Amino acid sequence: MLRYALSRVLLALPLLFGLSVLSFIYVRLIPGDPIVAMLGVNGNPALVARLREQFGLDRPLLSQYGEWITGVARGDLGVSFRSQMPISTIIVDRIPATLQLAGAALLVSLLIAIPAGVAAGMRPGSRLDSLITSATLFGLAVPAFFLGTLLMLVFAVNLRLVPSQGYVPFADDPMQSLRLTLLPAVTLGLAISPYLARLTRSAVVETIQESFVPFAQAKGLTPRKISMGYVLRNALPSLVAALGVTVASLIAGSIVVEALFNWPGMGRLVASAVVERDYAMIEALLLIYGGLFITVNLVCELVQSVLDPRVRLT
Amino acid sequence: MTPLDETGGTVLEVRDLAVEFPLTGSVVRAVDGVDLDVAAGEIVGVVGESGSGKSVTMLALLGLVHRPGRIVGGSVRLRGTELAGLGPRELARLRGRRMALIPSDAGAALNPVTRIGAQVDEGLARHLPELPRAERQGRILDILRRVGLPRPDTQVRRYPHELSGGMQQRVAVAMGVQLGPDLLIADEPTTALDVTIQAQILRLLLDVREESGTAILFVTHDMTAVAEICDRVLVMYAGQIVESGSVAEVCAAPGHPYTKALLDAIPPLGGEPPEELTTIPGAPPDPRAWPVGCRFAERCPLRRRLGDPAECTSVAPAMATLDSRGSAGRRSRCHFPDALVEAVGGLVR
Amino acid sequence: MTAKTMVVTTAPKAAVRRRMPLRTAIGSGLGLLVVLTVAIGPWVIGKDPYAIDIANRFAGPSAEHWLGTDELGRDVASRIASGARATALIALGAVGIATAVAIPLGLLTGFLGGWVDLVVTRVVDLFLAIPSLLVAIGVVGVFGASVTTTVLALGLSYWPFYTRLIRSAVVGIRSRAYIDAARVLGASRWRVIRTEILTGLAPLVLLQTTVLLGFAVLDEAALGFLGLGVQPPQASWGSRLAESREFILAQPELALVAGVPIVVAVFAVNLLSDALRDRLDARRIS
Ligand SMILES: Nc1ncnc2c1ncn2[C@@H]1O[C@H](COP(=O)(O)OP(=O)(O)OP(=O)(O)O)[C@@H](O)[C@H]1O
Ligand code: SF4
Ligand SMILES: [Mg+2]
Q1: Which residue of A148, B87, C72, C87 shows the fewest CB atoms closer than 10 Å?
Q2: Nearest Cα to C98, choosing from C152, C169, C159?
Q3: In the predicted model, what is the mean pLDDT of residues B243-261?
Q4: Which superfamily, per CATH, for C7-285?
Q5: CA B338 to ligand 2 centroid distance, Å
Q6: Least CB–CB distance from A218: residue in B100, B108, B113
Q7: Which residues of B touch A307 (CB under 8 A)?
């Protein structure tokens, strides 16, 4: 078990290293002088000098990388040239909002997608399966901003049940904070549900085809015991893996949904950093989102190994 | 349930069983009019080519034919209780307790995420819920010891994949016999195992019969195994039983050309049994449209030998008693069973 | 053997396959609608999508303006129809780029194996660790938002997973191709391998291209919505979203109207690709 966990972690390390190299090279890929690209030819000389210092573009690549990565390791992601603030401070400020939205959205999605996927997968080819599969095909076609606009129009503008946009930290006013979370979370949760539901369905379909299912029936076990103890229990590791994959959709979706609802999370930084050509910020975000995805999937793999005794051996 | 005759007598009585699988545009009648009887303490072999309908028949007995397949007709009586009319809950209550299954590949049939002990316990807990936990534990160890699993007290805490194939199969046998079923269905219980383990599992089946008088339906491709442990044998071809009788009599004088061909395919003594009985030239007919006449006609050497009589291809032979040989219960589905005796020798090339 | 047979008995593939052809019918109908919009939409509507008429801004639907007018009084229907062209071209271009990268790379790695395979697989894994929309946004960061960048950005964000798909398909086909090739001699050996790979990959490529077209339409729209795609006033479905976003609270119906064609197009693609997938699965089983 421990050996397996260790080997998984060791496998993730080169990936993280590769990610850091990629993010590092990214800024250096920008045609011409990135500082000029950011500030224009007539940029403020003091700022130009400071950015040159930060990126160290005149030094050899290897030493640039070395310095940058040791900074990253200490939590120093450089300075955003727009706001002149340390990037790590900006990002840390936004983590609570992003986590609140992503967590609530994930909850919404789990409540919708897992039951739907299980119901469809348990009886492949049935009416219910056809219905759910068609619904996921439609859901995959509905962009998150479209869905969000629709929900906003109905529930905020017309029915006036919830505020349409905005964010209040949970600690400041829990009730208002939750009310504001509702629409964006439902939007994002619904947006990623088709993916999760399809992954869930195929995990369940695969499991009911295993020959331990008819054997369990031949033992006279109740349908309830078979679906819980056999089918779902055996599909669980795949479901965890599906969850890891879904995080990618969650991240992509959050960029859009945060923009739509004026939600001050990390996703908002992405679009604004690109528009403002804040390369240090883009670099940091690539690193963080990639690292997040790698880490989440690593954790999912470890959880899978806990859930499946066969994995632990290898 | 009705009071039952617990001693001896007929355990299983199947009449005219039929199973169909609707496909897009056609229907596969995988089992077509199967009759069979099994007495208490009897081991009945079921042989026949791949696809002949052995497994589907066995699953139908257990009431486990799944959508889109369905049992379209016939009667299955277990110790006098008609199963055809029972609802899914009542059937489930009989499964595992009154009739049990030993799967062919226990490695795949055991729940990979549940410990052996807990898995053996599932059946007990389901069918004997009133039994206290401690007593169930005792019975689990007991049954595992009886099937010859070494050191059962440590094995119960292991997962299926930590056991060898032979040990997995023993566990599956233990789960099959733990509640002393009237009928044990063993669908190729040894195909996944190597020869020495196969022999041990066969021995185990004999022990089970000896100890609890369980009737056993033993599906196999291995005629040698049939000769070793079975009392009677049923030969299936194209969804039907084409011959039945005691092993000794059938082997000595087969009453159907297909049986004859199967027997001729047995390797000489000491040789490896073949993976599959493919030595008969030709292929079985398309299950979506069975031939009108004898289903074996296309491949039948006897028919050719007899100069291609019209009955073979125009009239479906019925299962008829072979009065001329052996005991009652010797039956064959051929128009010319007696010609077979005369033709012995020159039949199969 | 028996275990397998029992599996078949329990979870019949036949039933999985037996889905309503209704799905294909709806998919084809909607698909046709989209194709027609792209092909002759602007001509049928016959309005200049760039003609500004401030006096008539935010007008509702009328005989003159079927879908009303936008914030500058431009005809929404004609902006959507001509935007459909831009979006279709972007989607085709992006999928073209992804395919052009993925197929050679997938073939190369699947066939050669060894260190080439190792290196490419690692790079693919690395790119897969970054959500594809983020990869696309990164590309926009380098080149600046434009039509060309959108094509490039989407193409580059799809190649990793497409390459992985092709590679594993090639690995699956390879051994069989070699076995069959071993039965013949000389130059025809190559031909056998080539035919096997081609016949093996063609359905997969067809399916993936379809699926990716749907993704590309969605992602073009997402980039546009974020202001990182096609830039207004140039018409595309994405830029239409960017324009309507400014009035999302005051005039939300504009944003909804801008989104409907996206839903229709992608739903059509999804229905058709799902039908295609079922067809291919069925063929693989039999
Ligand atoms: N789910 C299914 N859908 C369609 N046809 C099926 C299905 N299951 C079984 N069949 C049909 O039933 C026939 C009999 O299959 P069965 O598994 O009983 O053969 P078998 O005698 O057990 O063969 P084997 O020796 O290979 O185990 C097959 O030829 C097949 O056509
Ligand atoms: S009925 Fe005719 S074809 Fe059929 S087994 Fe007998 S001899 Fe052969
Ligand atoms: Mg079978």
Answers
A1: B87
A2: C159
A3: 90
A4: MetI-like (1.10.3720.10)
A5: 11
A6: B100
A7: 113
